[in-house]
């Protein structure tokens, strides 16, 4: 019996001890588990250690799992000092609940507002106008990649957008017996082609009416209708293995020459480079449309309020300043094939032709539009992706039905 | 005070069970009546979340799929598991090797099972490509990407995973059958299939009840297999309730709606477990009174 009591007591003691973290430890929860991601994050971690911080690395694979960990931690009142996520509205909920600390002091002293594009500043600010989030890297979600060898051998020129020239190119590839479009048909990936098509067809005005104002007239407009029609038309150009295929496997189909085109965010660039292909020579890329409108998508770091402190801790401001430093930016984005978030940060030396297209587009005035996930709730986003994915998987669903579902998802009617 | 020390020793466990199980269930049920979004909060909204839940096409598809899984998977496992157990019971050679092989899938996680089956069924990677590469270029096998049939591939993978467990449990039951009964069957000249169906099967009732209970819980909490195999697709054709709850709890930041879904799942568990538990309880009592009389 004594052993039972002892075991119980020691388990209790161990459990308590596990909860007592060392006061100076700075725990960072992040989802950067791939080699290039880890390499990039090490740049920031090293600078932080140099500046006297104690970086405790807590990598959790997959952004949804990371979210599970930090949401649970915050609910339990024992949050880590920083966690990674992507631009969305999560932080607004957490700010409402008083769970996040602003890092406005670091942003102001680092001149973030002057050097970052306005839609990004909007996306990282709270309702009180203070900056709560430190952006680390930018990506272009609306990007099209193609295998240049396949295009050249068939005499196809780079299309402008999703117009007739695009479908003519796909027809030519199809006639040759290859897979024209390497598609990834699931609720996670479906947003990229749909939003790329919508942005090309509608431009920033319709974009704002659909995602920000969520006006019923805009959602039922001819532009949205034609975007869905174009998306539906793409079904005839992909292979039947597209359902549920991960985007990196689709990228492999294109880089191996089995397929010709992929519609995917600029992060896919890393897959093509990893396959030994060179941008501009072996594979090409373009932002669809006459004008290079780009959608904002940023990796960010967020800072939960620590127990017993109302504002940011010294270490939190330290990390935010390091992330926002233009010189660190350039080093950070180099392994990841991403764009620096500041206009005054230089492109890394290893930037390829595709990255430069994105860089020019980002830095031209008036090209950048917000990410829908900064404008609609996670639930609206989930339901919108469900209905579009259902439309993709079910050729019998009419455009009217998917528009009704889209309007329902965005809560417009 | 009989067994005082035993009661004290068990008290922490009982307390933990009470707080963790009952407490968490009460917490979830409570949250389902609130408008909680990403963080639990207590703004009561009555049955609003349940109205939203049963208005959601995805939830209704999930329920339908749970029913298909429940009938197909539980039934399939029981039939296949029983057949495998009978097969092993024929005093076959290398019995332990075969038993290990049949039980082996159960040692794999649902994630591994799901990915293996996904690769096997994927038209570009698996069986279809294999047959086409062998020369049957017209061979098509499109179950996984057919919206109406994809759920049955999940049923098949789940049966593959769970049938071994049923076999092991039923085999143990078969080995417990008295030799005299077999002698009687032989003397009466009853065909073997008939004996297994009409005499042995009813005697294995308790083994089957255990199997049904274990498998039924597998159906209700089925999440990882679907995530690994289809991700709920094509479209939303293979969504299941547990995935709905997980998606809304974390990804879609709607704790209230997710809790309403979880509450319905808890009710389902009770609905499945209660009749089985009651039947067994009743049987034991009847057996007890029979032995007394």
Q: Which key phrases capture this entry?
A:
heterodimer; A: 413 residues; alpha/beta; D-Maltodextrin-Binding Protein, domain 2; five-stranded mixed sheet; four-stranded mixed sheet; 49% helix; 12% strand; globular; disordered N terminus; B: 293 residues; mainly alpha; MetI-like fold; flat
What is this structure's SSE topology?
The complex is a heterodimer of chains A (413) and B (293).
Chain A: H1 2-19, E1 25-30, H2 35-50, E2 54-59, H3 63-75, E3 82-86, H4 90-96, H5 104-109, H6 112-115, H7 118-124, E4 133-139, E5 144-147, H8 148-153, H9 164-175, E6 179-181, H10 191-213, H11 216-219, H12 222-233, H13 247-255, E7 259-263, H14 269-274, E8 283-286, E9 294-295, E10 297-302, H15 314-324, H16 326-336, H17 353-363, E11 368-369, H18 378-393, H19 399-409
Parallel strand pairs in A: 1-2, 1-3, 6-7, 9-11
Antiparallel strand pairs in A: 3-10, 4-10, 5-7, 5-8
Helix pairs in contact in A: 2-16, 10-12, 12-19, 18-19
Chain B: H1 4-31, H2 48-55, H3 57-88, H4 95-107, H5 110-121, H6 127-134, H7 150-175, H8 179-188, H9 192-203, H10 205-220, H11 224-229, H12 241-251, H13 255-292
Helix pairs in contact in B: 1-13, 2-13, 3-7, 3-10, 4-7, 5-7, 7-10, 10-13, 12-13
């Amino acid at each position: 019996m004594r052993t039972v009591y002892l075991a119980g007591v020691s388990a209790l003691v161990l459990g308590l001890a596990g909860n007592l973290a060392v006061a100076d430890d700075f725990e960072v929860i992040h989802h950067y588990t791939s080699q290039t991601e880890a390499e990039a994050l090490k740049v920031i971690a090293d600078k932080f250690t140099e500046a006297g911080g104690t970086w405790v690395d807590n990598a959790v694979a997959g952004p949804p799992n990371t979210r599970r960990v930090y949401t649970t931690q915050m609910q339990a009142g024992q949050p880590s000092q920083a966690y990674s996520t992507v631009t969305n509205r999560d932080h607004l909920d957490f700010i409402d609940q008083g769970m996040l600390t602003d890092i406005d002091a670091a942003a102001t002293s680092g001149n973030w507002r002057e050097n970052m594009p306005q839609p990004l500043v909007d996306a990282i600010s709270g309702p009180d106008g203070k900056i709560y989030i430190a952006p680390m890297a930018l990506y272009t979600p609306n990007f099209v990649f193609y295998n240049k060898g396949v295009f050249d051998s068939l005499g196809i020129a780079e299309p402008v957008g999703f117009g007739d020239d695009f479908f003519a190119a796909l027809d030519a590839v199809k006639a040759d017996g290859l897979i024209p479009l390497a598609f990834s048909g699931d609720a996670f990936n479906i947003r990229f082609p749909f939003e790329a098509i919508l942005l090309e067809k509608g431009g920033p005005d319709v974009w704002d009416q659909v995602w920000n104002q969520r006006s019923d007239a805009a959602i039922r407009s001819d532009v949205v209708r034609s975007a869905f029609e174009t998306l539906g038309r793409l079904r005839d150009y992909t292979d039947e293995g597209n359902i549920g295929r991960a985007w990196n496997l689709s990228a492999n189909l294109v880089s191996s020459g089995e397929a010709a085109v992929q519609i995917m965010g600029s992060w896919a660039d890393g897959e093509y480079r990893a396959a030994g292909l060179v941008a501009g020579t072996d594979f090409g890329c373009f932002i669809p449309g006459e004008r290079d409108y780009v959608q904002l998508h940023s990796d960010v770091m967020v800072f939960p309020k620590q127990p017993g402190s109302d504002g940011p801790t010294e270490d939190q401001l330290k990390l935010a300043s390091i992330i926002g430093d233009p010189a660190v930016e350039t080093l950070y984005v180099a392994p990841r094939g991403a764009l620096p978030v500041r206009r005054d940060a230089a492109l890394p030396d290893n930037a390829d032709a595709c990255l430069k297209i994105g860089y020019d587009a980002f830095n031209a005035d008036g090209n950048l539009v917000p990410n829908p996930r900064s404008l609609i709730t996670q639930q609206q986003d989930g339901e919108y992706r469900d209905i579009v994915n259902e439309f993709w998987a079910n050729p019998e669903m009419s455009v009217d039905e998917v528009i009704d579902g889209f309007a329902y998802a965005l809560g417009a009617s | 005070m009989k067994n005082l020390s035993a009661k004290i020793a068990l008290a922490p466990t009982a307390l933990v069970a009470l707080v963790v199980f009952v407490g968490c269930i009460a917490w979830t049920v409570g949250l389902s009546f609130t408008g909680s979004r990403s963080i639990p909060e207590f703004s009561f909204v009555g049955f609003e979340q349940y109205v939203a839940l049963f208005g959601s096409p995805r939830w209704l598809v999930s329920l339908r799929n749970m029913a298909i899984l429940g009938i197909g998977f539980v039934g399939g496992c029981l039939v296949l598991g029983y057949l495998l157990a009978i097969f092993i019971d024929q005093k076959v050679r290398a019995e332990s090797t075969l038993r290990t092989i049949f039980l082996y899938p159960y040692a794999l996680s649902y994630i591994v099972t799901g990915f293996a089956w996904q690769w096997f069924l994927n038209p570009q990677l698996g069986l279809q490509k294999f047959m086409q590469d062998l020369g049957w270029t017209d061979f098509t096998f499109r179950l996984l990407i057919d919206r109406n049939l994809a759920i049955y591939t999940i049923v098949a993978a789940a049966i593959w995973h769970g049938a071994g467990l049923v076999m092991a449990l039923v085999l143990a039951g078969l080995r417990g059958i008295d030799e005299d009964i077999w002698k009687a069957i032989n003397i009466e000249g009853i065909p073997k299939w008939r004996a297994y169906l009409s005499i042995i099967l009813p005697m294995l009732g308790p083994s089957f009840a255990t199997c049904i209970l274990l498998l039924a819980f597998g159906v209700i909490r089925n999440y990882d297999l679907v995530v690994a195999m289809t991700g709920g697709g094509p479209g939303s054709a293979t969504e299941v309730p547990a995935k709905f709850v997980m998606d809304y709890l974390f990804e879609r930041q709607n704790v209230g709606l997710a809790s309403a879904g979880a509450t319905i799942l808890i009710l389902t568990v009770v609905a499945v477990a209660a009749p089985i538990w009651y039947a067994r309880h009743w049987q034991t009592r009847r057996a007890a009174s029979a032995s007394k009389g």
